[in-house]
Amino acid sequence: MGGTKMLPENTCGVKVPQKLSWSSMIEIIQDNEWRTFQPVVTFVQPRIVEQPDAASLKKQCPYRKKLEKQKKKALKKRSDFSLSKYVKLARIKEKENFSEKENLNPERLKALINYLDSPVELEQLYAAQALGQLGVPEESVTSALFKTFQECNSLPLQYEAARSLALLGCLDTSVVKMLIRHLKDASLNRREDTLSALKVSLQAWSMTPELEWYWIGARSSLIRNLRRLVNLQDPMDSVIFDAALCLGYLDKYNPIAQETMFMCLSQDDCQRKIQALAMLVKQMAIVDPVVIKTVIDQLQRSPLYKHRVDAARLLATIGLEIIQEEGLEEEVFNVLLEKLSEEPFLVVRQAVASTVEELNIKKRVWDIVEKQLRDDKDEIRKKAVIALGVLGIRNKNLFFAMLEMLELDTCEDVRIQVVRAFSTLGMDNMHVRKSLVKKAQTQGILARECSKALESLDKVSDAQKEYMLQSFKIY
Fold first, then answer.
1. I need a labelling partner for 9 at 20 to 30 A (CA). Which of 20, 35, 373, 428 fits?
2. pLDDT tens, N- to C-terminus, the chain (475 residues)
3. What whole-number distance in Å separates Cα of residue 11 and Cα of residue 208?
4. What are phi and psi of 197, to 5 degrees?
5. What does the alpha-carbon distance between residue 198 and residue 168 come to, in Å, rounded to a whole number?
6. Element (H, E) at 5
7. SS3 label, residue 10
8. What beta strand segments (E) does 179-337 contain?
9. Considering only CA atoms, which of 287, 355, 374, 282 is closest in space to residue 325?
10. Measuring CA to CA, how many Å separate 412 from each of 346, 383, 427?
11. CA atoms within 13 A on the CB side of 399
12. Residue 283: strand, helix, or coil
């Protein structure tokens, strides 16, 4: 205990696309078995057989229609009681973010590229900055920026073009040397601006598999100048911290960068602290009791919900084995159990539920939470329902117990949380709908919650139908 634990080196930072969180709502029954009867004959007269068209094949006899109807009914009945998909985590309800680059008009890119040749320097500067911020690493963009960087005589324009090239992943020797030149600049704003671009570029570089790493020009010179920045100034200065981050991305074994990250763990700046934790755990693969306890503290007390999400994910990255070796399993377990029900933000509860699953402690949590559903205290039952809204429902008995709570529980707050849990889990189930519809016709807060839940389920249903239509669309 107390020693530094090295996590297995993650050489592949590529994110795996998330699976769709809904299953098909349309059951397709295929029955291609046609009954045929061939009489025994000694001679078959040659003849032309009229082939049935697609329309005639769709026409079925009454008996077959009845049989197909019974099959569909049986399948629907089975699917209503199939709760396996609700065991998975609830859908993360995020606002739709349509970034500018996703909806960027190609003509807009062409216009910005043309502005790089404008006789007005201000327009050139604007175009160079905009092309970097848009983050579209197309050949036409990088080529135009590199041409401007090499051919222009204006130092400000050269810098903006170099900075944008770095943001787009182009770290050519001449580009890196230009950025190093501005790291030595006496202007604090210019050093901060340069480091912010390098930090984005180097982070993206470090997250790619090592076999796919692209070349970084003047790398040794860049490391030397970053190290100089870290050594010569106040360790808690923002420039020093960003320089240490860049140094860590370039060389995860650098002792100066590691020391700076550990020093930041004792500071009050929560933004800097979560970045230092991510660098230590994910990039440098360094974990000890101090790191784990700091991650737990971030999950419990960070004022920003995004940092609490990051802290939950860091615990999953650390893994149960190292947590157990440091004797912190019970402390981590209790914090995660508490956050499942007492955390006000759904996205944080979902991150915690994901961590619970990855740490292989979900069954233990389920056992505790399901017992709490039968507690005499309203507040405990309410917290249990909130937790199940992100953990999922693992069996039929639990589902019907919650459905019964929606009908009979004496506490309205508990019933409201049951409605929200069904909505969050996307339980488009005939039993759930029947209960929600009946209560939505009454008055009060419960009726309003039921109406909102029905609207949410309808949206999911429509999305599923749209997905099915797109799946069968012929291009």
1. 20
2. 455 555 555 544 434 334 333 333 233 334 444 434 444 444 444 333 344 444 444 445 555 566 666 666 655 554 445 555 555 444 444 433 434 444 567 888 899 999 999 999 999 999 999 999 988 888 999 999 999 999 999 999 999 999 999 999 899 999 999 999 999 876 888 999 999 999 999 999 988 887 767 789 999 999 999 999 998 666 568 899 999 999 999 999 999 999 999 999 988 889 999 999 999 999 999 999 999 999 999 999 999 999 999 999 999 999 999 999 999 999 999 999 999 999 999 999 999 999 999 999 999 999 999 999 999 999 999 999 999 999 999 888 999 999 999 999 999 999 999 999 999 998 888 899 999 999 999 999 999 999 999 999 888 766 665 655 554 444 3
3. 7
4. -70, -45
5. 11
6. strand 5-6
7. coil
8. 286-287
9. 287
10. 20, 13, 20
11. 21
12. helix
Q: Is 287 helix (H, G, I), strand (E, B) or coil?
A: strand
Q: How far apart are CA 266 and CA 417, in angstroms?
A: 38
- Which residues on neighbouring strands pair with residue 6, listed in sequence order? 286
Tokens of 2: 């107390």
Burial of 246 (0-12, 13-18, 19+ CB in 10 A): buried
Amino acid (1-letter code) at residue 173: T
Which tokens belong to 116?
Answer: 């790089």
User: Token pair for residue 265?
Assistant: 């763990």
Q: Specify which residues 5 forms β-bridges with.
A: 287
Angle between helix 445-471 and helix 412-424 axes, rounded to 10 deg: 10
pTM for this structure?
A: 0.75
Q: What angle do CA 65, 67, 73 make, to 5 degrees?
A: 100
The residues near 160 (Cβ < 8 Å, ≥ 6 apart) are: 125, 128, 129, 132
DSSP category for residue 58: H
Three-class SS of residue 309? helix
How far is residue 140's CA from residue 127's CA, in Å, rounded to a whole number? 14
**Cα distance between residue 406 and residue 420, in whole Å:** 11
Angle, helices 346-358 vs 362-372, to 10°: value is: 130
How many alpha carbons fall within 13 Å on the CB side of residue 45? 3
- How many DSSP H helices and E strands does the chain contain? 24, 2
Structure-token pair, residue 322: 């190292």
